[in-house]
From TrEMBL:
<feature type="domain" description="Methyltransferase">
    <location>
        <begin position="36"/>
        <end position="130"/>
    </location>
</feature>
<dbReference type="GO" id="GO:0032259">
    <property type="term" value="P:methylation"/>
</dbReference>
<protein>
    <submittedName>
        <fullName>Class I SAM-dependent methyltransferase</fullName>
    </submittedName>
</protein>
<dbReference type="InterPro" id="IPR029063">
    <property type="entry name" value="SAM-dependent_MTases_sf"/>
</dbReference>
<keyword id="KW-0808">Transferase</keyword>
<dbReference type="GO" id="GO:0008168">
    <property type="term" value="F:methyltransferase activity"/>
</dbReference>
<dbReference type="InterPro" id="IPR041698">
    <property type="entry name" value="Methyltransf_25"/>
</dbReference>
<dbReference type="Pfam" id="PF13649">
    <property type="entry name" value="Methyltransf_25"/>
</dbReference>
<keyword id="KW-0489">Methyltransferase</keyword>
Length: 236
């Protein structure tokens, strides 16, 4: 329900960010013939950027309202509604050259067993030497420093306040969104799974991926406990 309620202003909160594409290309330049899946594509902004490099990109999201916005903006691109846990059912074995998941999508899974299962499904859906790239919040930083809020997003269209409550291995992600055009205020709370670098490393290695690397920003800096995002890449 939350993403349905913010779908019309999603791009005001999270506008298109070319630095994401630069990061992906710096890991390995996208070849024109590559087949790429963008999981958690939301309103399609990263999918659109990737489409400048290859004609074979698919955006996938669970939320139909976000996808409706994506399809209205980028009607020349392919988008499908689906659960990330079903990618090996939706697509055939070794279908993709690259699978990407940005925007903290991974930590919406309900438990660590699901994360492990998802990694296996990604592995099976990637071609040999395929690349898996993920971006989430750096929860090492959140937990170690007891951080209970993220920076407020404020612009001409919206004010977006984001608070964290850490308890029992979970984070309650509480948000308050004010839409300035009509004064509407939307409040929401969703649980997030605060995956740490060590947990990701263990789960990725169990799955069979190789060349796992962590990064602390979109410029490719090393990950530290003070990095705000956590990004990682690995190869099948």
């Amino acid at each position: 329900m939350f993403y349905k309620s913010i779908s019309k202003v999603y791009d005001d909160i999270f506008p298109q960010n070319k630095s994401q594409l630069d990061f992906i290309n710096n890991l390995k330049p996208i070849a024109k013939a590559e087949v790429i899946l963008d999981i958690g594509c939301a309103t399609g902004n990263l999918t659109d950027l990737i489409s400048k490099c290859t004609n074979n990109v698919i955006g996938m999201d669970l939320d139909s309202d976000l996808l409706k916005v994506a399809k209205s903006k980028y009607n020349n691109l392919s988008f499908i509604e689906g659960n990330m846990m079903d990618i090996d059912k939706i697509f055939t074995h070794e279908y993709f050259d690259r699978i990407i998941s940005f925007g903290n999508t991974l930590v919406h899974l309900p438990n660590r067993n699901n994360v492990k299962s998802f990694f296996h499904r990604v592995y099976n859906t990637l071609k040999k030497d395929g690349l898996f790239i993920v971006q989430i919040i750096n929860y090492n930083r959140i937990i170690k420093n007891g951080i209970n809020e993220l920076p407020i997003i404020d612009n001409d269209s919206i004010t977006f306040i984001r608070d964290y409550i850490i308890h029992n291995g979970w984070i309650d992600f509480n948000t308050k969104l004010k839409i300035k055009g009509n004064g509407e205020i939307l409040e929401n709370s969703i649980p997030l799974l605060p995956l740490t670098e060590e947990e990701i490393r263990n789960l990725i290695e169990i799955t069979g991926f190789r060349n796992l690397k962590f990064y602390g920003n979109l410029k490719g800096a090393s990950l530290t406990d003070n990095s705000i995002p956590l990004l990682f890449s690995c190869i099948k």
